[in-house]
Amino acid sequence: MSELAHRRFLKMHGAGNQIVVLDLRGTQTQVTAGEARAIAAYPRAQFDQLMVIHDARTPGTDASLRIYNTDGSEAGACGNGTRCVAYAMLDDPAMARPAESGRLLLETRGGLVGVKRVAERSFTVDMGRPKLAWAEIPLAEPFQDTRRIELQIGPTDDPVLHSPGVVNMGNPHAVFFVDRDPDIYDLARMGPMLENHPIFPDRANISVAQVLGPDRIKLRVWERGAGLTLACGTAACATVVAASRLRMIGRGATVSLPGGDLVIEWRADDHVLMTGPVALEWDGSFPPEIFSAEDAA
Prior knowledge:
This protein is an alpha+beta fold.
């Protein structure tokens, strides 16, 4: 039987980004890719990202996180999920620790992430510095200018999408700027092709963005390993950085996604801050039978 059987979880969302939070502090239990897929298939725990809280590994941090996509792959960062983790660690009766305050420092594969409460159900996450060099994103070949790279989909003389900006915000992102409403683009069809394009050796999150004004952007995202989602925090951050580098906006904007708005600021110290809401939908526990599938062994 899986060690996750009967484990309690929180079903949450951050601006529509579907999140499951699982607290494994105090144990040696690790979630396998198969178990993550099994959880994603369980109707009450379907997620875009699974946020697993482990004991801190680095002095000065409050916990370490492992972040899973629906296909069982791991992500380096998830801003919307980090806000949900902050709620769990600060407010949930079963997960909160008495000594914790309104600030946390969490360790992810993408680096250290700071988060602080700004309202009862709103948090600001310090997503760190964007990586902009081609090898850091990473790309499969050198591009000295990553503000726009040579990549397109559709006819050569009339591409549907072309020349994305590329940014790593804990995860690799390609942002296609368009003049029309992002909703008209068939991202469900184009997203998988672009996510798995050979130029992205680690795959990439694919975004279609429309700059609506000097401080507002409309965004849709195909997430690597998860598909179309209602929101993606790292994509919102990457989009503001990419737009700012092209001088389409200043160094901050409200990013409107299908699930809600996120406020992004690229500070002068190069750190990107994201502020947004969290919502608790329900809690539950994993029934043992969901882990009986062959790929969860």
